[in-house]
Amino acid sequence: MSNAIEEKLAELGLSLPDAPAPAANYVPFVQTGNQIYVSGQLPGGPDGLVTGKLGADLDAEAGAEAAKYCALALLAQARKAADGDLSRVRLVKLVGFVNSTADFHDQPKVINGASDLMVAVLGEKGRHARSAVSAASLPFGVAVEIEGIFEIS
Q1: 96-136 tens-digit pLDDT
Q2: I need a labelling partner for 121 at 20 to 30 A (CA). Which of 73, 100, 112, 149 fits?
Q3: InterPro entries recorded for this chain (predicted)?
Q4: Cβ-count burial 77-103 (b if 16+ within 10 Å, e if not)
Q5: Domain ranges of the chain
Q6: Distance CA 39, CA 145 (A)
Q7: In what order do the strands lie in the sheet with 144-152?
Q8: Domain 3-152: what homologous superfamily?
């Protein structure tokens, strides 16, 4: 990984986890040409998976914190795909799914947790297109799941 990205993560008090293994019959990422498609990543925090439903169990701030964990897992997958060198990647798009009640409308605020982290860590290479959508439920009862598309040089 590039020193600048390592330094930025350390400055933010963060570190990347090992790239999470898939939980079923799929691969964590696929590279085709110069694109890396990273499967949905779950919010693995220091106390395990962040679970709960936004609008019932969690507020937007807690959801944004969970989205940061997803972003770290996405970066870990991108690092693995780039042979350990995140300076080779640019984020193209995030798709965020928020486990939320029917009357919760702050999905974008939740996914901002991931978007803000990507820009903080990758700078201009972290600016991206994005979707933030509600889901009635998510695997293992997690609060958020986010997938990403990266470009690799």
Answers
A1: 999 999 999 999 999 999 999 999 999 999 999 999 999 99
A2: 100
A3: Endoribo_LPSP/chorism_mut-like, RutC-like_sf
A4: bbbbbbeeebebbbbbebbbbbbbeee
A5: 3-152
A6: 10
A7: 29-32, 35-41, 144-152, 89-99, 129-135
A8: RutC-like (3.30.1330.40)
